[in-house]
Design a protein that fits this description.
2 strands
Length: about 170
Amino acid sequence: MGAGWNVVGTCHIKDNFVENDLNSVFVYIKQAIKENRYAKIKIYFNYFKNVVMQVPLRFKLYPLDQESFDAFLENIDKKLDNIALVPNNNLLLEPDPKTYAKSLIEDIVHHIVYYAVLNNKTSEQASRMLAMKNAKDNCGEIVSGLQTVYNKTRQQKITQEISEIVS
């Protein structure tokens, strides 16, 4: 692929999809992370701000770090509440903290991929809606112009017929 990009796969996602439709993507990313197959995994998507504004964004899924996660939240206009974290040595994580952290990262990646696809689909539908509205507005102008031309032509024809009858 050009520009140094390495696209490793694609999938078709229908307009009316459910989260399970993305299972092949989730499984592929999970396996790639588990096997350390890639140095970095990034996801690119259109963030839906409003009907007329969609912002292209990128997020580094792997390796997931605090800096990229904070940048992601800032890009999508979200802020985490500043909660003072107090170390708690009595906290028990099952089966162990490392496994829990891995599971948490998998969940975050899963939700970010789903969020990205939802935003892409929302942006696509908003663009379609806007294009159809513009087409309808332009069509109205064209119809109005054609109606004026039709009326003028009809008026000329009637005037010509009256002139012929009178003479």
